[in-house]
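Can you please make up a whole protein chain along with its backbone structure tokens because I've never seen that pairing?
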Amino acid sequence: MSITTETASGAPVRYARLLLPFLLLVGLAVALPASAGATTTTHYYVALGDSLSQGYQPGLGNTKVGYVDDVYTALHKVDPSLKLEKLGCSGETTTTMIKGGICKYTQGSQLAAAKAFLTAHKAQVSYVTLDIGANDVDSCVPGGQVDITCVGKGLKAIGTNIETILNTVIKADGGKPRMAAMPYYDPFLAAYLTPGGQELATLSVSLINTLNNELRASFHAHHVRVAPVATAFQTHDFKDTVTLPGVGSVPRNVGLICQYTYMCTQQNIHANPAGYQFIADQFIPQLIPAKG
């Protein structure tokens, strides 16, 4: 149907052709669902650290059953748009994390790769986790003896390097993601089960305390949330006991190391799958705010 009007001279002006494109657009807008053309922004969880962040398993190497993978599973339920960016490196120390030398990164080091990714995706990174520092001192217990000089050098390096690492990460991510980091469990508690190993087990707690105190101080100073891994492993509890099959009664802290790591079966410091989930359970509450 043609719509007409009259000009001042009385000549009719037909609007049908002028209105038709407009009417078609209106009809199209009504027909399309409201969400058509909308895009979901991808968010990221960036995992930094050493072999624990890569889910290392003896005989298998890096796996997808580490604590980072378990944390990601929980976070992905909250945000289905979330993707995991694993940048950790097995064997990494605080020094190599800054300078490189163990794992290959286009940018030269894990920290440089983290800086580049965080800077490029600053508005999209929702979570960051970190574990680093154990490899700076793990080699300081050769043959069941604690090398105090080695420990001192390692702790000095950690004290300087952790500041550089945290400052770089926080500057690159703009302080927007929820970031959590962990103090370590004490794998050398397993020495308690060896002949004459109780003294080493006790000394190892002093060593891990010094390491963890250094890390916690830096985490708190930079407002990084602390996943209470050492506390969950009840590192200091020699008093309470548990029963290990085939062994008998042992201190609780020793029992938890045997339960959640390979130290008592393969003399390997890494967590087993149950242990990685146990570690993840300490991270998750720091990253997902409690309801209410």
Summary: Residues 148-173 form the longest helix (26 residues).
